Amino acid sequence: MTKKLKISFCTVCMNRLEHLKKTLPKNIEDTMTYGNFEFVVLDYNSKDGLEEWIMAEMSQYRAAGLLIYVKTRFPEYFLRSHSKNVAAKHATGDIICNVDADNYIGEGFADYINREFMEHQHIYLTVPRDFGKKDCYGRICVLRDDFMAITGYDEDMTDYGFEDFDLVNRLELLGRKARYFSNSQFLQVLNHDDVTRIENEHNIHSINQIYLRYINHYSSELLYLFKTGVFYMGIVVINRLVNSKSVYNVFIENRKFSYQFSLQNNCWVKGSYIKSDDGIVLKTCNKQISLTPISTGKMQNRRGEIFYECSEPEDFQTRVMFFSQINNRIKMEKNKEQKIIRVNTIFGEINSIKNRA
Questions:
Q1: Which residues are within 8 A (CB) of 123 and not within 5 positions of it... i.e. 6 or more apart?
Q2: Global model pTM greater than 0.70
Q3: Which CATH architecture fits 7-190+343-354?
């Protein structure tokens, strides 16, 4: 008889009740035949009735020890790395498997995980990067001992995305090898837009205005004004156009880029700003830039360069998403370049009440 390792399926949730209502009961029922498992749900300060639903509708699973419910009321905004670490530290299984609230795992998934870890040593399970469904990229299964050895997700990555890729990079540095999910039935998701992905994050609520200055056919300058009086400014590059000389000379080339966009020098200019009827004054430690309004939604600097406000909701959200992703991506690339395995001194710490009654 094959040994069954205990598997902890970890889900973090901030205001995702409508997703969890559909996925969690189904995922638990699809795992019942495996036997040696638990689902850990971290309620990351949800305000949508998640706690009430868990208590009313999921009590039978909690009573059976199949569902561990962890509640915290302190984070104002969603932090992916931190929340995933909190959930993992409440897990008791031999294997930790992250399952996003919008993911279905499918029948037989637990048996598949167990078989992979029993038949292969020094591995982790992940989704192929060319799979095409980015909502599944968070599905990573790893031995609990390996997760703790690399100190979990990098909690310096406080924005959106790439924390999963960073975890995988550091598992590779630890000497673990990827095994890929081969059955698409294990990777079914509830589809939703990018607005939903970032609606609980700090940036979408903290960025007051965004301005864009066109430089040439492959680069633009972005200016982010935060409600706190802080600004970030940087040049965004369209990688495939950098060497094309002109938009009229763009042909299919035998080269590929890992990412569509980059931040020039991987660096933002940061400082403070003052806003008045006369315009905006940007201040750094050694420089001051004045922007003067010339018409609605347009600002101009002393060189005559024009900054256009990104005021359309879709355009604004796209720029917020870029800001969030590029910051995490730069951190991921730095960890990989410096071959950092252990990224946190303390991780997954929070005031919580376990398995609330």
A1: 116, 117, 176, 177, 178, 179
A2: yes
A3: Alpha-Beta Complex (3.90)
